[in-house]
Specification:
It is a single chain. With about 210 residues, the chain is α/β, with parallel strands linked by helices. It is built from seven helices and seven strands. Strands 1, 2, 3, 4, 5, 6 and 7 form a seven-stranded mixed sheet that branches. β1, α1 and β2 form a beta-alpha-beta unit. It is globular, with a radius of gyration of 17 Å. The two termini are about 15 Å apart. It binds 2'-deoxyguanosine-5'-triphosphate. The site of 2'-deoxyguanosine-5'-triphosphate has 20 residues, from β3 and α6. The site of 2'-deoxyguanosine-5'-triphosphate (DGT) has 20 residues, from β3 and α6. This is Nucleoside triphosphate pyrophosphatase. Keywords: Cytoplasm, Hydrolase, Nucleotide metabolism. Its EC number is 3.6.1.9.
Length: about 210
């Protein structure tokens, strides 16, 4: 039987990562209310938030009829900076305030992963599942105000957890990454390999 892998994410970065890693997949976006999930768990740490939301997204898609018989991977990225959990800034003023503080400093990007194996799922069951968080510490170069304004004006940081990318324009401001760089982009392919192994699937089985 051909293995089907579904990415439960709207993130263009994640599907690009899988495609460039040669991993065949389709995309089904969940409609998870992320604020409701985190509120239901009190005030989880940034690490736990990433895992909780990855799990919620994967389980929501795995419950859909079209997911039956497939492997479903959900992800969520949270940037931990000075004890705060930063998602996407969305607005220029929020990005400006955050990037000014991040300049010359460092923070940790946590990406949660949750894999649901629906191949053995009985009616109403949830299938077997396994998850892991991959974290990487990101060290930033000092940015001057003109660079910050120009970066925000591109729009790139507004829809990225942590208000930066390492593989886009933001790469100009990254001094180093301690950890899996793919975890910063949004999906650690080596973590996916480990989750697939737990489901007795080799990464080579999903190579296209
Ligand atoms: N290309 C790139 N994207 C990044 C980087 N850091 C963060 N991002 C993006 C990837 C994700 O699209 C986004 C993280 O937000 P979420 O984890 O909430 O995922 P998103 O809302 O995009 O989609 P989803 O909730 O999974 O449907 O930030 C980076 O270094 N490079």
């Amino acid at each position: 039987m051909t293995l089907r892998l579904i990415l439960a994410s709207a993130s263009p970065a994640r599907t690009k990562l899988l495609t460039e890693a040669g991993i065949a997949h389709t995309v089904t976006v969940s409609d998870v209310d992320e604020d409701a999930v985190t509120a239901a768990h009190g005030s989880p740490s940034p690490y736990d938030t990433a895992q909780l939301l990855a799990r919620a997204k994967a389980e929501a898609v795995a419950a859909l009829p079209e997911a039956r018989g497939a492997l479903v991977i959900g992800c969520d990225s949270v940037f931990e900076f000075e004890g705060e959990a930063h998602g996407k800034p969305y607005e220029a003023q929020v990005a400006r305030e955050r990037i000014k503080r991040m300049s010359g400093s460092s923070g940790t990007l946590h990406t949660g992963h949750w894999l649901v194996d629906t191949r053995e799922m009985n009616d109403g069951g949830s299938g077997t599942a396994v998850g892991a968080v991959a974290s990487a510490e990101v060290h930033f170069m000092p940015l001057d105000d003109a660079e910050i304004e120009a970066y925000i004006a591109t729009g790139e940081p507004l829809n990225c957890a942590g208000s930066f990318t390492i593989d886009g324009r933001g790469g100009a401001f990254i001094r180093k990454v301690d950890g899996d760089p793919h975890a910063v982009v949004g999906l650690s392919v080596s973590t996916l390999r480990e989750l697939l192994r737990a489901a007795e699937v080799s990464i080579t089985d999903v190579w296209q």
